[in-house]
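Request: Give me one sample?
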Amino acid sequence: MTPRAIITGAAGLIGQYLVKTASRWAPGWDVQGLSRAELELTEKSNLEERIHALKPDLLIHCAALSRTKACEQDPEQARRINVEVTAHLAQLCQDIPFIFLSSGEVFDGKTGWYSEADEPNPINVYGQTKLEAEQAVLQSPSHTVVRIVLTAGTSETGDRSFVEDMCRIAKSGKDVTLYADEFRCPLPAGVIARAIWELVDHKQPGLYHLGGSERLSRWEIGETLQPWCPELKGHLIKGSSRDHVGSPRPADLSLRCNKIQRLLSFRIPGFREWLAGRSRRGADPWDYLDEGV
């Protein structure tokens, strides 16, 4: 029988890409996506019943409360979704491979270029809940945690990626303030999906970092996107994190990805490199079925 893979958070950005690219990168799998509309993960009895009925051979857990502001406003809900659901799923999948998508937000952002060996020190609720979930997942030697930072792409709902957020604000006629002293290593969702499917094939569980090979400020990211998102022109404002008001934000979440890079059949690109390559080819940078490099 064809092995079955379940993707939670299938209506989210990375979940969508994992499901839609499975025919290319995971042809040996029967892939089924679960969205919140199909299954409320916080309802434990229903969750157990559904997982037992589906009998997965692999579960990739993408679902989360990932908006930092929402986590700060409702820490109990954040913990329920990000920690308790993850721990419960990991327990239900203790006998099969389980891949959990975590975040570089587990770090405080004071140094940057974090490796898997660096000590986490979250400064916001989202990061804290992701760290607690990681600890639950990694209790099993057959389970995997993949930390990501900033994902580009397009979603069916149009509100799942930072690119979509920026464009939506600009289209409304408002300015978008981008900090020139806040750094990330963005990566397109298509690359993340391909890397995760390859990680599945390698069957080497553990903790991995997965981010773009280029460290960019938020401001540099916005400038890079302007040719692809003309609505941003005239609406980008260079700012500083020193003036930030709101949820705590780590200054530098660049990640070292040497560990996962050694397993992959392709080189993880930088964000500007990725977009430049798509420009030369005249290709859609967010195409679900692009070759992923």
Notes: The chain has a mean pLDDT of 94.
